[in-house]
């Protein structure tokens, strides 16, 4: 994320005639205490005939004394510097215990040293002290108890920022503090000097700081608060610094109300502004003109997730996407891409629903907000359905799903969007949302229909909806059945209750009164206790002869419909087992591969419905109820889309007649390409959006840009941060789904060799699996590679590939095709995880063409190895890569032997250097096939996936540490308080060591005294290796008794002198022992935490035992494991090295 800038500051005095210039003092060199790295500095002075002497003043500031030998017409001072604006956390400091809370007292010895900075600021003549306004301001802002010192400083700085407005003031000098308070207006130097006076008034040592302020334009506007300058900006600036014991001098900028960060580059810090002036000096009397300028230019930017590509790069990417689309269309591939982007909350990064749990109230609220936004864009004449989602083993209830549905032919699916509502938004809040008001009671001044919709619905509304649908179908009113909650459940609850209040007499049989008649009487008495319907039911199904609708005549033993226990929609609690002794007939599912077409008017023609006996009829029904004040309609399963559309039309007519907005629930429509769908579902820690497939790069780009934008407005984001500053994606997937506009048009069904080509190429290039994946990889992950699960799988996969080729009669355009289910059978049992789960595989073919279910015959292949990228343009580069590979393999099937990577798969291919070399080969292959895919387009993924930890330069050598990938193991089953659990061991981490410019025969790199097995990396002076280490020591982990390996101390050892030439230190946690309470709020703070853990110092001093290193290298050379990887756990145990285990 580093940005390097070039700053040029020019000050020019032009005199009307040549004049003698007296000595000048220039304070325009960054002060020693600047926290911003200054990589280069220069000062050019005109006239050239001068002498310069660099000095330091009494306060440690650099100053240049200029002496001029000849008169001159111009005095021109140009300062240039190169600054690395790496993130600085202004709050990353330690405070001495006695100064943790304010007020505190400086120790006597320290107070003597700080005396010039504690001296009160004089409002008038020397010794006059602060003015009345400053003293009054201090009195009006007491600390209020004993707050934390840092909190008090924040409050003080922001209070002054509010009280004094900023202005540009060209007059020389600094206003007195009282003058600034009286005017409530001042320049940056005026506000800074006022803050110094106030701080000293509180007994705090403070000084005046002048320097450069560099502000860079943000990559994207802020969702909350100001967005900063629209363009990059720099100028001379002033602020205050306060001395806090332990932390040292802390910069406070009252102009912005913020603490000083990496953009504040101090030039001088002194007790008084007079001694901080940038330029002081004199000339003989003469008329002069002053001119000055400050410019800043970006000279280097690491790829970052907020701006992954420049405009030029993005133009090339879109041009390549258009070219790939054109070739794809010309080849008649018919490829569509869908996906499952995932999002997390901006406001809550630690709650269970945003870390581990699948559901939660805040997640429902954010999902509903996103659904409303997307519906206005994609489905204004469609409908929103709140329905049951997936039900995973071990979860007590199924998950929910919000589906947006609209017709592909743009014919309205639902014409009254005002009659659709949200089950999770209170009615009053919904009214406020519709009218832009704050949440509260309904506004009676709003239109009458809106006020009416905000009122709670009643049971009569539910009955009226069902009755209207029944009448429209020509069914008798007797088919509108009331459904009731089960009163017998009250008895069950009482029987299960502990000892205490006895059961009421009327709720039980007295001893000795048990008989058949008594039981019947008790049942009738209890069953009559509930007489208010909970819902209304219309049994409804399609006739088997395609003759339209029918309604089954349900006859139940209890004489009425009694719902089963629960709080789910009534449509899911119908007593289906009580309808008939006979099992309803199983109707064959229509095969999605058979394309249907709409009727002339967009709906099916239907004769009047008939009533049928319930014995052999499907047990499906349309249900309406009022739940939480909302009218809810539950749609039954319908196998034909035309029939589904007809039912929706009838429901809308009924809802319009009743006049209450409705929540549509129930079963999804049948899968059909004539209906577009976008759904939002919960997943552990994330919200998942299943987007509609698109047929072109441009269409998908527009879709994803809109989705990311609307998700941000719904306060959802694509980034997560760990406590230590680790920056990651959502933790959920961004699976890419390949298919066709219809299952029959799927290129993966029409050309099975396409799938074989992709599997082969992916297996040969591990970068396609690991560069875009999440942190959890390996054989027990959510998307293991085909060669990660079992050792023999490649042997069997080669047989499967050969058999597919035989069945298809070849590959490419010459292939005759095979029965689609044969491809499923050939690969299904190989594309699995360790347990045989076909869904948890990098290539999931569950929905390609399964003979087991029509819903598995969609012609889809899901690529599950892609994690959610933080920026939509990065997602589009992923998409472009996949589209380009599909195009290549369609035009020229890829055949090559599968590679037995062995230990290298989880060795070298988990190091960024080798992964990037591998993905560069992929890009080169695409270019060789005529696809202009630039390898640099993948740089943002490299920086996001493998952030640089730090770099140290030692003479001609450079040592770099970079994050690498470490597989996490799923442990064995363990018994916990809540049941059986399997923990994931994330206690081992890996980093890459890269050494450039070192003589291989002379220098070694060690980590904590163990030799790092550096290997040549394709260039003569580059060596790379990996280090695995125990980062933390949880009780549930592999080898839990092995202690942590950190800090990691790296040395570059000169074997000739037997000394360390230098090195660096990497800490897993804050080296000062600081414990953070919460994750970082953004990527900037996350990077500052990571930066703090690297130190370009800490090498081993004294002689190094080279013989001992040689012995360790000999042991390592004969040890098993991946070449080029040092495992510190193994070095401390198996190698027999004495040390702390």
From TrEMBL:
InterPro entries: Bac_transglu_N, DUF2126, Papain-like_cys_pep_sf, Transglutaminase-like
Residues spanning the signal sequence: none
Residue span, Transglutaminase-like domain: 180-256
Residue stretches in coiled coil: none
SMART domains attached to this UniProt entry: TGc (SM00460)
Stated name of the protein: Transglutaminase family protein
